[in-house]
Amino acid sequence: MGQHTETALSQSERAAWIGSPMTMLRVAAERLRICDDNGKGSELAEIFLYGVMRRHYGALPAVPKIFHKQNRNDNAKGADSVHVVVSDGGAFELWLGEAKFYKSISDSDFDTFISSVENTLDKVAIRKENSIILGVRDLEECLKSLYTEDRAESIYRDIKRALAPETSVDGIRRILHIPILLIDECDITKQTTVFDEEYRNSVKEHHKERAVVYFTRQVERLKDKVHMYSEVRFHLILFPIPDKKKIVDEFLSMARRLRGGES
Questions:
Q1: What is the pLDDT of residues 142-189, one digit of tens each?
Q2: What pairing do the DSSP bridges indicate for beta strands 81-86 and 92-102?
């Protein structure tokens, strides 16, 4: 649940409750979706992707998508994650992520997921996510915590200029990354009790094969439909787990306890 405090709270809220971790967790849990429909577990996948973006890719903690939901019982509209990644030299990239929690990663699941990626790459959708970024006051504060005030203001101006409504989306596509997280209930992982070399090799080979199938299908469907498709960089993140129901149920049970036993 600790990672969820970043995805569901603004930076100012996290700073205000830094000495009260249980309060922070309770307020974050209040913004969770708790549902029994086919989307069960989807928000957990979004939180996981947020963690990957923050810890692996070094994204700024300034655009928590769950925080921007209007209704905790509705799915967050648009991309599942919205991030800005700034390099050591000050150049920045826009990352719009998709995340799903599946019982399997079959070819039919891929087709559904590719449709989500296509929607994320839509010009109107990109504009909408840009407006979220430009409307987040935390972004400038995050930059000031990393750079001198003059350097932070310079990078912030560059971001505002690049993502402004009057700027061509073609330029945005050149700095656009799409992280694609698929958490799947993996038979190899389910049947394994020892995390050894044999398991690692087996699961690597299985997911390499799945990755090739996924990107082959995505290229076939999107290369001629999405403008400047070849300019966009895609990152497929496959994460195997043994039991989806157990993980989701434990996560939601903890969230309910934090929310005072609400069902």
A1: 899 889 999 999 999 999 999 999 999 999 999 999 999 999 999 999
A2: antiparallel
Q: Which residues contact 45 (CB under 8 A, 6 or more apart)?
A: 80, 99, 100, 101, 181, 183
Based on the number of CB atoms within 10 Å of its own CB, is 222 exposed (0-12), middle (13-18) or buried (19 or more)? middle
pTM: 0.84
DSSP sequence for 229-242: GGGSEEEEEEEEES
Tokens of 73: 């019982």
Are 78 and 43 spatial neighbours (Cβ–Cβ below 8 Å)? Answer: no
Closest CA to 14 of 142, 129, 133: 142
Q: State how far the Cα of 66 lies from the Cα of 78, in Å rounded to an integer.
A: 11
Where helices occur in 36-148 by DSSP H, the ranges are 42-55, 107-120, 123-134, 138-146
Residue type at 24?
M
- Maximum C-alpha span of the chain: 55
